[in-house]
């Protein structure tokens, strides 16, 4: 056989190169694309009434005794009966009544298995690790815009995230200590960031001083709409025309306030309750609140990632209302250090108050070039973790990850039918 002509060889070579490049681009693109998984179905079996809660528990600044990565690996996998018990839930209504709902789980064998790193490292600091890398989002131009606008504040002092027009995802320990509901959960409210109006209806000047009053019957200072800073001298000095006066106003004077909305009902998985899931309680540290009135704010969808550490950046993001920076939204991002099937172990700088924040990442939608943020976990807070199962505890900032079964359960709480969310 003679030599192949160059005019034939060149197009073939170019075609091979193009196919190889396309395959490589697809592989890279897949790494940045939300995976699609079939989600099991969560069905209601029976709902029975319970006695009203005592609302006698007190909030805890940190949790302890969490069964860690290697500790969990030694525990037997929960049976279907166990899982259905963990995913059964209590509902508390605004009038103080309470119910228990048992559920069934279908299609569990179609859920993808998880495999991750089981190593662990020791740390000796807590909450803020090394230099504080948090960002304060104080300007309303940012804090009241997506994605920061999805973050909300609970009247119990925690944070949360909007997952539907009228549903908030938060941490269970912000509502319940494992034995009883918190004393502040009886009249639970959610604060939505809102922009200050330039003229208050009943107030003086642009700030609307007359509007910065405590509502009748409200004892919680967090439920007071703050005055805009700069009402004093800055207000008197601003005698110029429109643009000149606006240009002198600082970002601090643009700080937003909260619009508070009552919670209609609260739902918490039984896996969080003491004596139900034993050492796995931290895996179920999440709850969903239904608001009486839907705020006109864009929400963030839920997502599921088998392994965050395998993502190109491996970073998570979340915003909340940390106690040491009152009245402002605090944003942070960091890489995940370790992960188990239900928890994310990381060192994102945080303080009490940020518990319940929605942990999210940004990936491309399948078949599209558009990027989309989705919530993949709930920030639980600082915890002392029994990593190896030998009683020796190490400290981490921990987040509860959204698994397919939790995705189905939250979807059921939000939509009343988990079949509407069969693909995560």
TrEMBL record:
Comp. bias (Basic residues): 196-216, 238-248
Molecular-function GO term, any one: serine-type endopeptidase activity
Recorded GO CC terms: extracellular region
Compositional bias (Basic and acidic residues): 217-237
Domain Peptidase S1 positions: 144-190
GO BP term, pick one: proteolysis
Chain positions covered by the region annotation Disordered: 192-259
Signal peptide as annotated in the record: 1-23
Alphabetical UniProt keywords: Glycoprotein, Hydrolase, Protease, Secreted, Serine protease homolog, Signal
One Pfam assignment: Trypsin
SUPFAM superfamilies named in the record: Trypsin-like serine proteases (SSF50494)
Keyword Glycoprotein annotated: yes
Cellular localization per UniProt: Secreted
Keyword check for Transferase: no
Main localization, broad class: secreted
Family: Belongs to the peptidase S1 family.
Protein name, per record: Inactive serine protease 35
Source organism (scientific name): Channa argus
Lineage start: Eukaryota, Metazoa, Chordata, Craniata, Vertebrata
């Amino acid at each position: 056989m003679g030599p192949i002509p160059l005019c034939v060889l060149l197009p073939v070579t170019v075609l091979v190169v193009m196919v190889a490049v396309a395959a490589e681009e697809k592989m890279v693109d897949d790494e940045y694309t939300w995976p699609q998984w079939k989600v099991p179905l969560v069905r209601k079996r029976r709902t029975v009434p319970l006695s009203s809660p005592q609302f006698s528990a007190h909030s805890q600044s940190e949790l302890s005794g969490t069964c860690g990565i290697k500790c969990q690996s030694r525990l037997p996998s929960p049976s279907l009966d166990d899982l259905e018990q963990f995913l059964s839930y209590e509902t508390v209504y605004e009038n103080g009544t309470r119910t228990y709902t048992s559920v069934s789980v279908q299609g569990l064998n179609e859920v993808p298995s998880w495999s991750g790193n089981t190593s662990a490292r020791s740390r000796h600091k807590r909450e803020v690790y090394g230099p504080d890398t948090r960002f304060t989002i104080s300007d309303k131009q940012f804090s009241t815009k997506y994605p920061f606008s999805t973050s909300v504040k609970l009247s119990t002092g925690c944070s949360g995230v909007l997952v539907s027009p009228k549903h908030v995802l938060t941490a269970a320990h912000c509502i319940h200590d494992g034995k009883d509901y918190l004393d502040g959960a009886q009249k639970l409210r959610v604060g939505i960031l809102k922009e200050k109006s330039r003229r208050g209806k009943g107030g003086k000047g642009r700030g609307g001083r007359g509007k910065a009053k405590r509502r009748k019957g409200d004892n919680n200072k967090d439920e007071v709409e703050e005055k805009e800073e700069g009402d004093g001298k800055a207000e008197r000095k601003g005698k110029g025309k429109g643009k000149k006066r606006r240009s002198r106003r600082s970002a601090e004077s643009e700080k937003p306030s909260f619009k508070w909305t009552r919670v209609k009902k609260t739902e918490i998985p039984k896996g969080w309750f003491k004596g139900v899931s034993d050492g796995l309680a931290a895996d179920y540290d999440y709850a969903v609140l239904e608001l009486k009135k839907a705020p006109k704010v864009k929400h963030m969808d839920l997502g599921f990632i088998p392994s965050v550490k395998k993502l190109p950046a491996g970073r998570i993001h979340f915003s909340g209302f940390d106690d040491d920076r009152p009245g402002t939204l605090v944003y942070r991002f960091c890489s995940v250090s370790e992960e188990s099937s239900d928890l994310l172990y990381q060192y994102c700088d945080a303080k009490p108050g940020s518990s319940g924040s929605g942990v999210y990442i940004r990936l491309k939608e399948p078949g599209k070039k558009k990027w989309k943020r989705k919530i993949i976990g709930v920030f639980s807070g600082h915890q002392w973790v029994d990593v190896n199962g030998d009683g020796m505890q190490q400290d981490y900032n921990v987040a509860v990850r959204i698994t397919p079964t939790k995705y189905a359960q939250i979807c059921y709480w939000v939509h009343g039918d988990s079949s509407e969310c069969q693909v995560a």
